[in-house]
Design brief:
Elements lengths: L1 H16 L5 E6 L7 H12 L3 E6 L3 E3 L2 E3 L5 E6 L5 E11 L2 E5 L11 E6 L6 H11 L5 E5 L11 E3 L2 E3 L3 E6 L3 E8 L3 E2 L4 E7 L2 E5 L2 E2 H11 L2 H4 L6 E6 L12 E10 L4 E4 L8 E6 L2 H12 L6 E7 L3 H5 L4 H9 L4 E7 L2 E5 L2 E5 L3 E8 L3
Helix pairs in contact: 1-2, 6-8
Length: 371
């Protein structure tokens, strides 16, 4: 059934694009995960893409639709005026650090972007990002963690004719096409930024010389009661990525969840290491803010195709209505060909560094280069 459905869709793409697109993706819900190998074989037989990548996920994204609570398959393909190369990565640890396997050493082009799909139980994405930054500074990465399983061995990844349950797969895209990466963290700042004046690892004790929790209660005390209710939806700490900037705005903060508050000491624990001397500001996130943020980031952009990696915590449960992110992309970008999935961690750059995000929509917009 899965291969037949994919074959029919591949036939429609064949009529629209012709044979041998540069890149094809296939994303499937858990209902079809066991047949991902057959689906990939059908795509390769019919379309013969230069590179095929895909994975299983709890929910998938298509043209204006998000399939959250049922079976679904989405197939996407693009002809690109840019070279594309497959990657199939494994990561291990040695006494000297990270041991990376599968990276192509003889790339015939300088990569402009990396589309990456990973298994979160076997692939440490952020250490890999740091490792890659030493070799390709500023190379943007977009994609996400497969989300079909709650434990090791349950996710399925495909690259060309290989299906695996671990590591990461992806496609390196060379120059020749506009790839515009949008990372919507869906947050807004509250209060004001402060220097981190005392911290140990991921525990922030002081912001601007005062207990970190006191800074948060000061914010709540100055808010109207109705406005302060947003704090109950969850507070985050935004850490400035580029300290060279004088004024901070959307996209300058890396949002990290507060995971614990010690009211006695006034310390807050954050889901990341926060060095002393960095600038931080509290952030809040709710459905309205997330909607506004995504819309403002997409206004004025263009795309013929879009790959959407949205958090598995968004969707209808967060926005209280279905298809939110897919519909916003369709509305503001004049219905580009769209595919993607709900990820267990989304990949995308803030500033010139790549991170694993949560409750975020990371989107790759593709268009022919002008001229």
């Amino acid at each position: 059934m899965t291969a037949a459905a994919v074959g029919e869709t591949a036939g429609q793409i064949l009529e629209a694009l012709g044979r041998r697109p540069a890149l094809a993706t296939v994303f499937v819900t858990p209902h079809h995960a066991g047949a991902l190998e057959d689906a990939a074989a059908a795509v390769r037989a019919i379309l013969e893409p230069d590179v095929l990548v895909g994975c299983s996920a709890v929910s998938i994204v298509g043209n204006g639709r998000e399939v959250e609570d049922g079976p679904g398959v989405v197939l996407w393909a693009a002809t690109l005026d840019a070279p594309v190369a497959p990657v199939h990565l494994t990561v291990g640890r040695t006494a000297d650090g990270l041991a990376l396997g599968g990276w192509p050493d003889d790339l015939p082009f300088e990569p402009a972007a990396l589309l990456l799909l990973a298994d979160p139980f076997s692939f440490p994405a952020e250490p890999f990002f740091d490792h890659l930054a030493d070799r390709y500074p500023g190379l943007p990465i977009v994609g996400g963690n497969a989300s079909a399983a709650s434990g090791p061995g349950g996710n399925r990844l495909v690259v060309d004719d290989t299906v695996t349950t671990s590591g990461a797969v992806g496609a390196l895209v060379g120059p020749g096409i506009d790839i515009d990466l949008v990372v919507s963290q869906g947050c807004r700042p509250v209060g004001q930024p402060f220097a981190v004046t005392r911290a140990e690892e991921n525990v922030v004790f002081e912001l601007g010389g005062e207990p970190a929790f006191s800074r948060l209660t000061d914010i709540a005390d100055k808010m109207a009661e109705e406005e302060a209710s947003v704090l109950r939806n969850g507070v985050l700490l935004g850490v400035v990525v580029d300290e060279r900037k004088l004024d901070y705005e959307r996209g300058d903060f890396l949002a990290r969840n507060l995971i614990q508050i010690d009211r006695g000491s006034g310390a807050v624990a954050v889901g990341d290491v926060v060095p002393v001397g960095t600038t931080a500001q509290y952030l809040v996130r709710d459905a309205r803010t997330a909607d506004d943020d995504l819309r403002e980031l997409l206004v004025g952009r263009r795309a013929q195709g879009a790959l959407v990696f949205t958090c598995n915590g968004r969707g209808a449960r967060f926005f209280t209505k279905p298809d939110h992110d897919a519909l916003v992309v369709a509305e503001l970008l004049d219905e580009p060909a769209t595919a993607g999935f709900f990820a267990a961690g989304e990949f995308g750059p803030i500033g010139r560094r790549n991170f694993v995000h949560g409750y975020t929509a990371a989107i790759a917009l593709m268009a022919d280069s002008p001229g």
